[in-house]
Amino acid sequence: MASDSENLGSRSGNLVETHTSFQPRVIVFYFLVVALLLTLAGGLAYQQLMKNPVHSENERVQNQRRIVVPGPRGNIYDREGRLLVGNHPRFAVVIFLDELRGEFRKAFIQIRKNYRAWEKENPNSRDLEELERMPTSREMEVIARASVVQTYLDRVNAITGRKATVDPRKLNAHFSREMLIPFTLVNDLTPEEYARLIEKLPVKSPLQVTTSSVRYYPFGRSAAHTLGSVSLNTEIDSLELPGGDLATFNVPGPIGKDGLEKHFDAVLQGQPGGTIFRVDPSGYRINPPLERKLPVQGKNIVCSLDIDIQQVAEEGLGEYTGAAVMMEVNSGEVLALASKPDFADGAWLNRALSGLYMPGSTFKLITSLAGFREGVLTPESTYHTDGTFVLNRKVFRDHGGCITGDIDFLLAIENSVNTFFYHFGFKTGVEA
């Protein structure tokens, strides 16, 4: 027994000796842990102190959105200062979808409960065809949003007497791409409907009555081709607005499509305004806005048209297809530029500018001027005609051929005698 005790004591002593002896590997491990902790602390300090501006900037870009609104276009006046194209207010009812997040969620939950309850009540109808007709969660969300928005639209219908309905596809597309921009429910309110809605809609309702501007033509169809038209533009130049690095939503605005509207678009185009909002992780807007700049109306232009002469020219054309142009002789300014048919008839071709026509008898004026300048032709010049003119064996005839004998310049102009001007045009020469 003593021997065993001694052996046990000896083994115990050796064991204690082993644990208390110097072990280099443990010291190296300690150094590694300390180094890792220092590296971690240094990295945290670098991210918090040195990279803080970068993280703040990334957070700003991620959590803020910008809405750009176009400025009203400038007006177009005639030479006497009469308004030819201006802006007219258009009243609309819009709804702010980001204010309905709670209602969307409640409607979705209720719709999902209804479908689940139907499944429990009809356990035998869960065949493949029935399952294919069951909406997915995303489809239920679309249904929920449409039902909520239709509820608000019904309030508008009750006030205005309309029977408008929501298009779920348009609503879903707007919600997915442009949720921060209000969704238009009714776009053509009458002044009476506008007044009733302003009176009866609550101030803090998601429904709001807005006023935008559309092009207004006091003289109706007059000078339609000359003044031109506008179309909707979603690519608004917002370089001068703050927040250029933010996700931006553009409210469509007018852009010149043709005529003066297109040629002077850079002048007429207003300066856009913008609003910057903070949004939550779901993309919903958080009020109030962080920054706002109001749009500015574009510059006005005064053109050379005289609307009185323009209307006379159009009345003269009547229902004929053609064009009429009147210019101020000394300055070359265009006083009237008429083309028929016009936009109202579905005709987009401006025949006064884009039509290609033979000059016909109008060229006799140029032939006469050249003949006078060369001394070949005078007001007293006469020519004997039998209604034909032969040049290089080719016979040219008068239109109608009813004027023959000796005729002078005034008679030739009055009756538009082709052979008279063939003769003196040939004597004058092509170069003159």
The structure class reads alpha+beta
Low-confidence segments, ≥5 residues, pLDDT <50?
8-17
In DSSP terms (H or I, runs of 4 or more residues), the helix count works out at 16
Number of E-type strands:
17
Based on CA atoms alone, the radius of gyration comes out at: 42 Å
Main sheet overview: 5 strands, mixed
Q: Kindly estimate the percentage of residues that lie in beta strands according to DSSP.
A: 15-25%
What's the helical proportion of residues? 40-55%
Give the end-to-end Cα distance, rounded to a whole number of Å: 147 Å
Overall geometric form: elongated
Mean pLDDT: 85
How does this model look, in words?
The protein has 432 residues and is an alpha+beta fold. 43% of the residues lie in helices and 23% in strands. The strands form six sheets. Strands 2, 3, 4, 5 and 11 form a five-stranded mixed beta sheet that branches. Strands 7-1-9-10 form a four-stranded mixed beta sheet. It is elongated and about 130 Å long. The relative contact order is 0.11.
Describe the protein's topology:
Elements lengths: L1 H19 L3 H27 L1 H12 E6 L6 E2 L5 E13 L5 H21 L6 H6 L3 H24 L7 H10 L5 E7 L1 H10 L6 E10 L7 H4 L1 E5 L13 E4 L2 E6 H5 L1 H4 L4 E7 L5 E9 L7 E2 L4 H11 L4 E6 L6 E7 L10 H4 L8 H12 L7 E4 L2 E4 L2 E4 L7 E4 H7 L2 H11 L4
Parallel strand pairs: 1-7, 2-11
Antiparallel strand pairs: 1-9, 2-3, 3-4, 3-5, 6-8, 9-10, 12-13, 14-17, 15-16
Helix pairs in contact: 4-6, 6-7, 14-16
